[in-house]
């Protein structure tokens, strides 16, 4: 079965690329700069290579070429994932190579994110019938979005990309959580005979497992914005083609919680001058509360798994 072979292929390629890519990033001095605003315990990670998202991005087009070369849907999914990865790569490069602390300007990132998401959503609606009835959670039926399909889908992709980016703050946290979330879409694709979605999902799952060999604590490489923006786009794009965008907040509940913690922290400080959490995103709150990095990651992975399982039960 191509889906199984795709997952194995993704794992082997990502795992095999590690000993090549990571030393290369070291030699090029593409090391992560740790902000003073973060937990003091993270300062020891200074210089760890970033842009490691390439390890799980590279297997995707190769797998589609080998196993689904005639599938426009598979190529569209990979194109969106890669386009967001390239936005992240440009951001990482400006930070690391050209020493521009904030990377791409916010309006530059937003412009390209909207552009690529809009093209993908147009394809999804016109070629993959993704604008059909959208499934509601907890067996509540389905609803037609009409003209809202485009804006809602683009917004979902933008939000998901940046939510995963916010969550990527601990070794293995984002990579493990997205792996669990993508399992939802892999099963969806298999059950509903959307083999393009199933293949891309399983390839990404396999590649992420291979990547985590180098990304779990203590991380040898970080995914950077290259990886986190791409993974967020992968989640939302999978939801768009499977017509489960309205269930995506449950599938990715961990990323929703992490994003809300930042919003709450900012609003509270602006309105009252007080912080709700020790530090945001939420994973830093627990770190500063005395939890080990490994414990935070394990608990947050559990939350991600529960969200994906609840979403599956709810459809």
Automatic annotation (TrEMBL):
It comes from the Bacteria. Its EC number is 2.7.8.13. Mg(2+) binds at residues 165, 225. One of its GO terms (biological process) is cell wall organization. It is a multi-pass membrane protein. The chain crosses the membrane at residues 6-25, 51-69, 75-98, 110-128, 134-158, 170-190, 196-214, 247-269, 296-314. The keyword Transmembrane applies. CDD domains: GT_MraY. InterPro entries: Glycosyl_transferase_4 (IPR000715), PNAcMuramoyl-5peptid_Trfase (IPR003524), PNAcMuramoyl-5peptid_Trfase_CS (IPR018480). Its main location: membrane. GO terms for molecular function: metal ion binding; phospho-N-acetylmuramoyl-pentapeptide-transferase activity; UDP-N-acetylmuramoyl-L-alanyl-D-glutamyl-meso-2,6-diaminopimelyl-D-alanyl-D-alanine:undecaprenyl-phosphate transferase activity. Its cofactor is Mg(2+). GO terms for cellular component: plasma membrane. It is found in: Cell membrane; Membrane. It catalyses: UDP-N-acetyl-alpha-D-muramoyl-L-alanyl-gamma-D-glutamyl-meso-2,6-diaminopimeloyl-D-alanyl-D-alanine + di-trans,octa-cis-undecaprenyl phosphate = di-trans,octa-cis-undecaprenyl diphospho-N-acetyl-alpha-D-muramoyl-L-alanyl-D-glutamyl-meso-2,6-diaminopimeloyl-D-alanyl-D-alanine + UMP. Keywords: Cell cycle, Cell division, Cell membrane, Cell shape, Cell wall biogenesis/degradation, Magnesium, Membrane, Metal-binding, Peptidoglycan synthesis, Transferase, Transmembrane, Transmembrane helix. HAMAP family: MraY (MF_00038). Belongs to the glycosyltransferase 4 family. MraY subfamily. Catalyzes the initial step of the lipid cycle reactions in the biosynthesis of the cell wall peptidoglycan: transfers peptidoglycan precursor phospho-MurNAc-pentapeptide from UDP-MurNAc-pentapeptide onto the lipid carrier undecaprenyl phosphate, yielding undecaprenyl-pyrophosphoryl-MurNAc-pentapeptide, known as lipid I. This is Phospho-N-acetylmuramoyl-pentapeptide-transferase.
């Amino acid at each position: 079965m191509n889906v199984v072979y795709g997952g194995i292929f993704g794992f082997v390629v990502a795992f095999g690329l590690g000993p090549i890519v990571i030393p290369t990033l070291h030699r090029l001095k593409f090391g992560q700069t740790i902000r003073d605003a973060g937990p003091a315990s993270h300062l020891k990670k200074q210089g760890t290579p970033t842009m490691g998202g390439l390890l799980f991005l590279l297997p995707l087009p190769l797998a589609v070429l080998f196993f689904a070369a005639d599938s426009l849907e598979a190529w569209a999914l990979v194109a969106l994932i890669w386009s967001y990865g390239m936005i992240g790569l440009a951001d990482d490069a400006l930070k690391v190579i050209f020493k521009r602390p904030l990377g791409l300007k916010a309006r530059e990132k937003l412009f390209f994110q909207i552009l690529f998401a809009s093209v993908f959503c147009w394809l999804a609606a016109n070629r993959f019938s993704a604008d059909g009835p959208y499934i509601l959670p907890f067996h509540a039926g389905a609803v037609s979005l009409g003209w809202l399909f485009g804006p809602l889908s683009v917004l979902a992709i933008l939000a998901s990309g940046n939510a995963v980016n916010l969550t990527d703050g601990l070794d293995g946290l984002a990579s493990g959580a997205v792996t669990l979330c993508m399992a939802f879409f892999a099963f969806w694709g298999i059950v509903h005979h959307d083999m393009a979605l199933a293949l891309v999902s399983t390839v990404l799952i396999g590649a992420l497992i291979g990547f985590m060999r180098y990304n779990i604590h203590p991380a040898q490489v970080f995914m950077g914005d290259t990886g986190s923006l791409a993974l967020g786009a992968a989640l939302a794009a999978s939801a768009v083609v499977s017509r489960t965008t309205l269930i995506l907040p449950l599938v990715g509940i961990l990323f929703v919680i992490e994003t809300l913690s930042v919003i709450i922290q900012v609003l509270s400080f602006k309105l009252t001058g007080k912080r709700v959490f020790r530090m945001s995103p939420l994973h830093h709150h627990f770190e500063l509360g005395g939890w080990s990095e490994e414990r935070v990651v394990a608990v947050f992975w559990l939350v991600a798994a529960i969200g994906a399982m609840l979403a599956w039960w709810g459809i």
